């Protein structure tokens, strides 16, 4: 009988010892809130362990924390499995992680509301992301959300435009209902200065006064293509002519004879030629053109209706400049330059009628 017992012990003792020693290997590991797959990788590299598992069954992204110093392997795995929700089997250096079928198919509902912490207002369209599974949902028109996940510990991120991100860890082992409150984020932006120039002719408090930009004279519609400073005035409000081609300015309904023309403060009594079609002023020699339609200044000499104040160019005291133009009716040329550089200058302006036949035809039509 003693020999039989001895034979039994010799045959089965190695098997029992192997089963007992499979999880008895002493290991040390310290980690805090790291994904399960990183913890397994650390054990595998340090102690030459081989882990087998299915990522569709085991949530390898769930966070785990372990603080073990020279503890048996099975105790360390028990600590990890309580956080990641799995079972294991040890065979030498090989460890199989699995989850019972009834556990892997059970989903638990996570629901709740997302609202403003200061006002309690429900936030519509807030984002809820389960970091471990890379998926999530958002709140509906009532600030409510609902999402089903397997049992486990999940890191959830709540975000909404204009609010700080809220990151929290929730252990889901049953149906969970939560209330999330987000804080508003205040972003201090740098000052932005916008500087603009208003294109407005109201540049003084004087009423009934217009100063015409002569640079626009070249683009306004001109009679027979001839630039004319006084014809340019007819485009201003309150000024019109009796008909196209007639002379005289009707300013606010007054007669043309009641308008005073000044050229460098000198009164002019006849401003038109070619039977009144064009003025006698060469536009290349004009520096400034103003019209007073009311509130006439005293210096104008008591005009009845309006005053057209024309200022001529002084000429360049730096360089010699020639300007001119050839038109269908007339041609013109202007020469200016310094007499003594930086001290005095001159300007000569000349215009000539190109077609005397046109002038005779116009006189016959007028008569």
Q: What's the arrangement of secondary structure elements?
A:
Elements: H1 2-21, E1 26-35, H2 36-47, E2 50-52, E3 63-72, H3 73-84, E4 87-91, E5 94-98, H4 101-104, E6 107-116, E7 127-130, E8 135-138, E9 144-150, E10 152-159, E11 166-172, E12 176-182, E13 209-212, H5 229-233, E14 239-240, E15 250-251, E16 259-263, E17 266-268, E18 272-273, E19 278-279, E20 286-292, E21 306-312, E22 321-326, E23 330-340, E24 344-353, H6 356-366
Parallel strand pairs: 2-5, 6-12, 16-21
Antiparallel strand pairs: 1-3, 4-5, 6-9, 7-8, 7-10, 10-11, 13-20, 14-15, 16-17, 18-19, 20-21, 22-23, 23-24
Key phrases:
single chain, 367 residues, alpha+beta, Phage tail protein beta-alpha-beta fold, Immunoglobulin-like, Ferric Hydroxamate Uptake Protein, Chain A, domain 1, 3 domains, five-stranded mixed beta sheet, four-stranded antiparallel beta sheet, rod-shaped, disordered N terminus
The CATH C-level name of the largest domain is Mainly Beta
Indicate how many domains the architecture comprises. 3
Strand content: 35-45%
Radius of gyration from the alpha-carbon trace, in angstroms: 49 Å
CATH topology of the largest domain: Ferric Hydroxamate Uptake Protein, Chain A, domain 1
Q: Which blocks of ≥5 consecutive residues have pLDDT under 50?
A: 1-20
Please give the share of residues in helix.
10-25%
Computed structural class: alpha+beta
Span of the ends, CA to CA: 160 Å
Number of helices: 6
Widest sheet: strand order?
Answer: 13-20-21-16-17
Shape designation: rod-shaped
Strand count, sense and barrel status of the largest sheet are: 5 strands, mixed
The overall strand count is: 24
Q: What kind of oligomer do you see?
A: single chain
CATH architecture of the largest domain: Beta Complex
Mean pLDDT: 79
> How do the helices and strands follow one another from N- to C-terminus?
HEHEEHEEHEEEEEEEEHEEEEEEEEEEEH
């Amino acid at each position: 009988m003693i020999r039989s017992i001895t034979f039994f012990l010799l045959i089965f003792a190695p098997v029992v010892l192997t089963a007992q020693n499979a999880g008895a290997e002493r290991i040390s590991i310290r980690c805090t809130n790291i994904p399960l797959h990183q913890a397994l990788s650390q054990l595998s590299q340090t102690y030459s362990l081989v882990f087998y598992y299915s990522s569709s069954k085991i949530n390898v992204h769930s966070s785990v924390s372990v603080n073990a110093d020279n503890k048996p392997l099975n105790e360390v795995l028990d600590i990890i499995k309580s956080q990641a929700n799995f079972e294991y089997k040890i065979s030498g250096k090989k460890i199989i992680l699995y989850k019972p079928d009834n556990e892997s198919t059970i989903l638990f509902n996570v629901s709740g509301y997302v609202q403003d912490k200061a006002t309690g207002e429900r936030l519509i369209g807030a984002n809820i992301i389960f970091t471990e599974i890379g998926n999530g949902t958002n709140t509906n028109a009532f600030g409510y959300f609902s999402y089903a996940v397997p049992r486990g510990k999940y890191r959830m991120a709540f975000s909404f435009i204009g609010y700080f991100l809220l990151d929290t860890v929730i252990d889901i082992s049953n149906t969970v209902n939560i209330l999330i409150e987000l804080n508003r984020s205040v972003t201090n932006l740098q000052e932005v200065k916008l500087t603009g120039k208003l294109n407005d002719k109201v540049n003084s408090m004087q009423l009934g006064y217009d100063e015409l930009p002569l640079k626009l004279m070249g683009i306004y519609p001109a009679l027979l293509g001839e630039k004319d400073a006084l014809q340019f005035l007819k485009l201003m409000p309150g000024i019109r002519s009796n008909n196209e081609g007639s002379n005289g300015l009707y300013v606010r309904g007054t007669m043309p004879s009641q308008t005073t023309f000044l050229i460098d403060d000198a009164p002019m009594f006849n401003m038109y030629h070619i039977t009144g079609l064009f003025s006698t002023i060469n536009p290349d020699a004009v520096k400034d053109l103003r019209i007073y339609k009311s509130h006439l200044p005293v210096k104008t000499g008591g005009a009845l209706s309006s005053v057209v104040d024309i200022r001529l160019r002084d000429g360049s005291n730096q360089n010699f400049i020639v300007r001119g133009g050839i038109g269908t009716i007339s041609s013109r040329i202007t020469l200016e330059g310094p007499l003594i550089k930086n001290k005095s200058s001159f300007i000569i302006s000349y215009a000539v009628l190109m077609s005397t036949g046109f002038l005779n035809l116009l006189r016959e039509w007028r008569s």
